[in-house]
Structure formats: C-alpha cells, structure tokens
C-alpha cells in the first residue's frame, strides 16, 4: 500500500496467468534439442514469483499454464517477465529474453489473452531508478580583466531505486558537459558502496572556455550561443563500479539541455534514468512470443464515510423483492466480466455479516427457475460465483488442514501413478502405479470425510440454506439435497485445490509433470465421487477406460456413504461454540533470511537463510523444510512487528519482530512476501495486551539505535507503531477498498446503467408489471429496478466528484520534476490533460462520460 495526500491511499492488485512461449530462439551452438525453461515475474527488477520449470520442451516452445495473484505494496514502473534456459550440466541459468510492460499500459490488456514479443536483456533494457540533479548557470567576474565568465554548476544530490547488478550495486555518477564546438568535459563522483539509493551531494563546476575578450559587447553577455565553446548539454550517467574483465556496468543516464538557460536561472529536479541512444541498434531478431492474461487494478481509496451511501444501497440487496431489482443483482448484469464484480461484492457482504441472507436470496431466485435438477447451480451464475468466492475467502485454513498433509506426501515421495497405457514411461509397472494411486486416493477421501467438523461455520450456513431450498422446491427428489451442495464442495472447492495446490497456497514447491499427472488423477477421482453421491444410480460414465478401472478399484460403497454423511454434517447449522484455534493452524511458511538474535554474549551477528513457519500459536524457524525447530517464539511474546529502515543494514524488505528481551531482524525475499508476513504477524499478535505503542525504526548496532542515537538497548521507542486495522485472523477484508473497486466498475459501465435505466422507463409506458429481458435474465419488476438504478447512479456521480476534487488538489500540490513526478515520464502531463478535459465536460453534462484513468492517476 502506498500513501497518497490526505486520507487517500493507493491499493494495487495484479492477477496474471502465464500461458506459453512460442518460437523461442535456438541456443548459441545451434542445438534444437529439449531444454528446461522457466519464467519469473518482476516488479521493475525485483523478482516476485517464479513459475514451475517446463522440462524437456520441444519445438522451440514451452507451456506453463500457471496463475499468480498478489497485492502490490509499492509504486513501480514496469511489470516484467524473464525467461530462463536452465542448463543442468553447467548448473547455470541463461536468460533468454523478457517481456516488459509499462504500468500505464496494463489497462490495455486487462482480462484478455495477449501475445507479447520477447525482447533481449542487456544493460540498457534494465535501466531503472531516478536521479536528483541541480544545474545552475553562474556569471562570475574574473579578477584579471574584469569581464564576466560563464560557468555551470552541476550538483548530483542523490539517486533512488537503481538497478542491482549480480546481487550488488556500487554506484557512481559521471557528469559530462557537451559544448557547442563538439568538445566534451567529464567529471565523476565518488563510489558509494552497497546501496541502490546513494546520496552523493557533490558539485562540479564547468567553465566556458574560449571567451572573447574586450570586444565582447554587453548585449551578448548573457548569451550561450557562442559558436566556439557555448554550453549545449549536460549528461549525467550512473554506473556500477566493477573491476571485472567487462568493466563498469551502465545503470542509466539523463540529458539536460542548457540552450534556454540564462543566469541566474537554475534547474533543480528529479529525472527518470533513461537508456542510451544506441540501445537496441545491435539486438538480435525475433526471440519469440509469450502469451499472458493480465488483470491489474489500481484504486485510490477514500475515507469510509465517502462510501456510506453506495454501501447501504448494496447491503440492502438481500431484502429487496424481487432480488432482480436489487443493486447487487443489477451490477452482476451490467459488468461484462462477472468475476470482476463478484469478488468485491462477496467481500463486502461477508465483512458486514450479510453474506448468508444475500446468497440465500440469490439461490432462492435461481432454484425457483430450475426445470432440470441435473443442472442445479452448475452454471456460472451470480450465486454460483459468489459461493465460489466465499469458499476461497473463508475456507483457506480448512483446505490446508484437510489436504496439505496428503499433498505434501505426494510432492515429497513423487511416486509414479500413471495408469493410462499410452502415457506410461518405459519400465513402469501398471500394477505398482495403480497401487500407489489407490493409496493416495484413500488418504484424500479419508481426510475429506473426517474434516466435517472443521468446516467453517459460514460455509455450513450456506450449505444449510441450499439444502433447505432443495427440500422446499424438490421434496420428492432426495438426491437434489446432495447435488445442491456436492457441486460446490467437490467440483469447485476440493478438486481444484488438489489439481493446483500452489494456486491455493497449499505448497510453495514446483510440481514436475509426473507429479502434476498424479494430482490430475486424484482431482478427477474426487470429482467423480462428488457426482456419485448425488446420483440416482451407482454407475459412473467415464470417457477414459482407465478411469473406470481406477474408480472400481479405489472407490467403495463405504466411501460413497461416508461422503453422504460428510455432506449431511456440513449442511447442518453450526452451533458457533467451537473454539477456533484450539489446535495450531499453519498460516504461512517459507524461506527468509534472519540476523542472529544475540542470544550468545560473544559472536558475530551474521545473516543466515532459515525456513520459517507461522501458526496461530507461534513463529518457528529451522534449517530446512520439516527440520527441527531451532527457535520457537510464542505469539504472546510478540510485542510489535514493524519495518526496518533500509539504511540500517543496507538491505531491502527488512522487518523486525520485537520480543521482551531481544529483537529479531528478518529479510523477506521480496516486497510482496514482506507485506504478507507483516500482515499475518501483526494479526496474530493484534490482541496481545502488552503490545508496544512506540518502536525503533532503525536497528541497534554498535551500542546505539541508528534512528534516535539512544545508547541503551532497552530505550523506549522513538516512533509510533503502525496503526493497523483490527480484523479477524482468518478473513481480513478492507471494506472501503472493495467499495472503491465496485465504484470503479460502476463508473466504467455507466453507459450500460443509463441504457438499462431508459429501458425500464420504456417498460413502464407499456405497464409497470411487465417483465423486461436483459443479458443475464429477466427484470421481474422494471419499476423497482428503475428506482435502484437511479439511486446507484446518483451515488456514483457523488463519489466521482470527490475523486475529481482530490485530483485537482493533487495537481496543485505535486510539482513536475519532484520525486513524486520525475521528469522523463508522461504520467503527470496525462493527468493534467485528463483533468482539463473533465473541467470542460462537467460544465455541459452533469453525469458526464467516465474518464479512463491511467494507473498512476490519483483517482
């Protein structure tokens, strides 16, 4: 989360699916044989995620088929995807190329598959960061002849977010003055070690040589158009100091024209670093293409009171009769990508405790229209997608407790389970593979059947409502009460989690093709069991002959009856008296780097990589996955969890865990991981009565705190702890953020709302009770629908006006050339242009046409 002026904050989220790469180039030695390819996702140059390795790829292509989604906790300029060729014999990974997309262009590709060209990677393509430069034109009188001498003062103040070269950055700057007579003069700063944000604060003076003597007339005294040696341009280049055989590495440059500068004018501004003019001239040809599907959202969230009007309209939806006239249902119809509206809508209802009556009202409307019980809740309707989203939100820990032990075993053992004769590897035994598969199937089904009492209460409430509706509308068809639930539990919840464990955060390991095939067979079996428990017959139809054999050998009548009992239990109303955290629940685990805590009086406090595991009871770390815990920190002993200033250790993504007698310093792998660990650690200790109110943002090094210079390690903190929002451990929902997402969707679809509003008006002319057909169904009451649409349009217009007022305020306070809006990018200029258009349009049209914002716009 990035701060913005006033009470407004920026929230960014990205969901990306990496499809496949095609037409990849041959290796340098022309070998067209199989190779191992993987892809990484980076914000600017910081790696966030890495895909599984596509092993032994043929035909110069590689298929990934992986999906990643995460909140973006900081500003960025480019989203990049790097492709690597893993050379196992040499144990090196060679970069093949990258796809780089500017942040402001992400909205162009929202929600659709797109092929992107793969481009080469070199020093110029990796340029990032910005530099603060101050240029002054001076007029100095020379003591000998008394005539004024032109001089230029160039001050390199500081840089920010420079590129990292081979895990390090030792930057220095060169300042080159270009004269009008084609001559150049260069100077350089000192090298700053191990920092991407160096503070140089060095000034260089350049004199104008070749000044004419007494014949120079006064009217040309201030002119820089001296043909002999006038100042033309100053270039500031950043370099990484390297003593290797290839020399220093280019980090970026800035060109500042001096033609229009007159004394005593100066230019004091931040500039984005740019690649050299020669960049791209000697690149190789086509490197192939990469297919991606991107969903990027960027929302500026206002104070909670701003959304009260729209929020109340949405929360009243469950009580509106008929449900097709409610604001929530209408939103599901006007937004073309239903999933875009389902996610924030479900979160808002869940946060305010209205999700059960809302989903129940939607389900009642849908089940009342059912004519074929075999299709009950099987379509991608609003209610089906809302239940899917709800299960993802509240069922995460339930999935981990139920499936993770078995999935960990499958991923660890990697036993072959292929029983399709056409896909078996040479030397494999079909009987052995079938026995392995039967063992895993038995473990998965047993884990699911024994998990009924652990099912989250809100899921049980929803399933109870669905079961009751099935009894009301189909009293003589017993199997419908099971099919109404089994489709969600097995087909939409357990089966996808087994097939894609990484997507559901059940593992961090990459799955090889053989293991993925095992997971596919397990997922198919769970789906088949779900179909069988709600079927009138005990026969299952399989397209694959081998699956019929698997089912007959691995699934018994005992399993089917056990699953029906499981469905009976989870569709009963929960008593609500169970303690949520009697047994430890694993919240997150993964590798991080920790600094020695100083439990020994003597010794070096070095940094070591450890495997961390956070549960609802404690935070532990060990040397390896599953290894003996070297240290266990009870949740009750955590006094504060806060970020550490980068200058303390010259490391990014550092945070501190404050305990009663010492502080543990930890470095996360990237900014996304850091935010996730910070959020979870803060939540588990949120209600500790002895939490600190003040902390030290700097580290305690060499017997003093770097932030406040206090010498005592027990000195009270010098900064207030972060004001984290109180939230439930299992489901943290930012209602205001979700409301802003809904507002943005409504604004984008305002023309559709207006069209629907006019259609309702027309329908009233022919009779208010007449049904009105829309894209997804029928408006049962056009009169009530028109009222809801009018109210929601009024609320959205009011919110849009608040956004434009904030945008104007932002433009008045942010200067082009400041650190917030450096020179070299068109974000600020586009923002000013869109603001001017709004001012001209708003006077003539009250409702106005929604302006599509750039991702960097403050609104």
Describe, in short, the structure shown:
One of its GO terms (biological process) is intracellular signal transduction. This protein is of the alpha+beta class and 859 residues long.
Describe what you observe in this structure.
The protein has 859 residues and is of the alpha+beta class. It has 18 helices and 31 strands. The strands form eight sheets. It has a seven-stranded antiparallel beta sheet with strand order 22-21-20-19-25-24-23. Strands 1, 2, 6, 9 and 18 form a five-stranded antiparallel beta sheet that branches. A hairpin with a 2-residue loop joins strand 20 and strand 21. Helix 7 crosses helix 10 (513-533), helix 7 packs parallel to helix 12 (557-570) and helix 8 packs antiparallel against helix 9 (480-499). It is globular. Residues 1-5, 212-227, 574-581, 724-730 and 841-857 have low confidence and may be disordered. GO terms for molecular function: GTPase activator activity; zinc ion binding.
């Amino acid at each position: 989360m990035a701060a913005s002026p006033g009470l407004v904050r920026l929230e960014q989220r990205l969901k990306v699916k990496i499809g496949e790469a095609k037409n990849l180039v041959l290796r340098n030695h022309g070998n067209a044989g199989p190779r191992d390819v993987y892809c990484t996702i980076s914000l600017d140059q910081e790696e966030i995620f890495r895909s599984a390795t596509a092993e032994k790829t043929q035909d110069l292509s590689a298929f990934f088929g992986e999906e990643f989604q995460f909140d973006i906790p900081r500003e960025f300029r480019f989203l990049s995807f790097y492709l690597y060729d893993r050379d196992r014999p040499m144990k090196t990974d060679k970069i093949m190329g990258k796809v780089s997309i500017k942040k402001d262009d992400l909205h162009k590709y929202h929600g659709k598959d797109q092929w992107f060209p793969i481009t080469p990677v070199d020093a110029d393509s990796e340029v990032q960061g910005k530099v603060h430069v101050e240029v002054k034109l001076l007029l100095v009188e020379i003591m000998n002849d008394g005539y004024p001498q032109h001089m230029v003062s160039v001050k390199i103040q500081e840089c920010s977010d420079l590129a990292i070269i081979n895990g390090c950055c030792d930057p220095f700057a060169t300042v080159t003055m270009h004269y009008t007579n084609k001559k150049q003069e260069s100077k350089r700063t000192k090298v700053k070690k191990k920092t991407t944000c160096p503070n140089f604060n060095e000034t260089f003076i350049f004199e104008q040589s070749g000044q004419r003597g007494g014949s120079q007339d006064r009217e040309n005294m201030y002119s820089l158009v001296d043909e002999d040696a006038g100042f033309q341009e100053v270039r500031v280049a950043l370099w990484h100091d390297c003593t290797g055989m290839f020399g220093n590495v280019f980090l970026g440059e800035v060109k500042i024209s001096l033609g229009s500068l007159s004394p005593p004018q100066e230019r004091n501004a931040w500039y984005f670093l740019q690649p050299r003019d020669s960049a791209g001239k000697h690149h190789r040809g086509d490197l192939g293409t990469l297919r991606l599907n991107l969903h990027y959202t960027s929302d500026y969230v206002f104070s909670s009171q701003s959304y009260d009007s729209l929020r109340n309209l949405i929360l009243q939806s469950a009580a509106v009769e008929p449900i097709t006239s409610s604001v929530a249902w209408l939103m599901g119809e006007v937004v073309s990508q239903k999933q875009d509206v389902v996610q924030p809508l479900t979160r808002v209802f869940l946060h305010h405790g209205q999700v059960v009556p809302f989903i129940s009202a939607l389900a009642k409307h849908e089940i009342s229209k059912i004519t074929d019980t075999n299709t009950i809740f099987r379509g991608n309707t609003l209610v089906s997608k809302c239940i899917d989203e709800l299960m993802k939100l509240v069922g995460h820990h339930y999935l981990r407790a139920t499936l993770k032990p078995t999935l960990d075993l499958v991923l660890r053992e990697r036993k072959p389970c292929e029983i399709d004769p056409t896909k078996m590897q040479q030397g494999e035994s079909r009987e052995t593979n079938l026995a392995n598969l039967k063992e895993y199937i038995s473990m998965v089904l047993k884990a699911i059947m024994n998990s009924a009492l652990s099912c989250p209460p809100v899921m049980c409430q929803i399933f109870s409502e669905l079961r009751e509706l099935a009894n009301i509308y189909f009293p003589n068809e017993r199997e419908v009460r099971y099919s109404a639930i089994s489709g969600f539990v097995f087909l939409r919840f357990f089966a996808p989690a087994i097939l894609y464990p990484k997507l559901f955060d059940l593992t961090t390991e990459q799955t090889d093709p053989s293991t993925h095939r095992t997971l596919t067979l397990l997922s198919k079996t769970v789906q088949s069991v779900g179909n069988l428990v709600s079927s009138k017959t005990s026969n299952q139809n399989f397209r694959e002959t081998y699956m019929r054999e698997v089912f007959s050998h691995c699934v018994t009548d005992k399993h089917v009856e056990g699953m029906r009992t499981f469905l009976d239990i989870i569709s009963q109303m929960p008593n609500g008296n169970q303690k949520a955290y009697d047994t430890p629940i694993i919240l997150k685990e993964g590798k991080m780097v920790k600094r020695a805590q100083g439990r020994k009086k003597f010794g070096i406090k070095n940094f070591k990589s450890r495997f961390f595991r956070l549960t609802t009871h404690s935070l532990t770390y060990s040397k390896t996955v599953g290894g003996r815990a070297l240290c266990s920190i009870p949740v009750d002993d955590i006094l504060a969890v806060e970020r550490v200033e980068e200058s303390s250790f010259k490391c990014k993504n550092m945070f501190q865990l404050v305990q009663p007698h010492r502080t543990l310093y930890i470095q996360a792998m990237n900014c996304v991981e850091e935010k996730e660990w910070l959020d979870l650690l803060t939540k588990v200790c949120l209600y500790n009565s002895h939490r600190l109110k003040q902390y030290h943002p700097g580290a305690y090094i060499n017997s003093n705190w770097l932030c406040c210079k206090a010498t005592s390690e027990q000195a009270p903190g010098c900064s207030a702890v972060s004001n984290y929002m109180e939230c439930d451990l299992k489901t943290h929902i930012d209602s205001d953020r979700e409301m802003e997402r809904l507002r943005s969707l409504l604004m984008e679809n305002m023309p559709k709302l207006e069209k629907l509003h006019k259609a309702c008006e027309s329908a009233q002319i022919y009779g208010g009770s007449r049904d009105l057909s829309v894209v997804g169904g029928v408006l049962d009451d056009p009169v009530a629908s028109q009222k809801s649409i009018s109210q929601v349009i009024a609320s959205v217009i009011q919110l849009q006006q608040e956004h434009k007022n904030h945008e104007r305020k932002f433009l008045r306070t942010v200067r082009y050339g400041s650190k917030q809006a450096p020179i070299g990018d068109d974000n600020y200029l586009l923002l000013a242009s869109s603001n001017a258009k709004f001012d001209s349009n708003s006077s003539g049209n009250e409702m106005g046409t929604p302006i599509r914002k750039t991702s960097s716009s403050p609104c």
